[in-house]
Structure prediction request, 143 residues.
Amino acid sequence: MIDDESGIFIPPAKTYLDDIEIYDAELGGVVPAWKSLIYHGYKARRFAQLRADSAGAVDEGTGIQQPPPLVADAIAQAEADLMTRILDSIRGLSDRMTALEQRADEEERARQAEDALTLAEDIAEAAPQALLSALADRPARLH
Prediction:
């Protein structure tokens, strides 16, 4: 930049990343950081655009049956698989808990039946005649 009145060259003010130099092999060595950022940003944007174009345009002549899977689809599928495995595990635990509860109920009924049988045996030993008369008074039930 040249000052209008004196004709002396005045260098422009430094802006962000003007004076930072980095090594970038793709650009051929040491380059300003802004140049590397612009180049790699454009390269990433172009790659994403090509990826989207290749996923959308499927040619039957090439033999490709489906577009290549996108990363977002793979992540969603992995999360769905994980949720399926978690739900299956929860169902398995629920089935096991139900079986344990049924077994506990059966054990409780068996214990009550043993207690009733023990009580009947104690009554029979203490007063066998009273037990026989009590049983004779009840109508017979067939199950």
User: Anything to note?
Assistant: The chain has two domains: 1-54, 69-138. The chain has three helices and two strands.
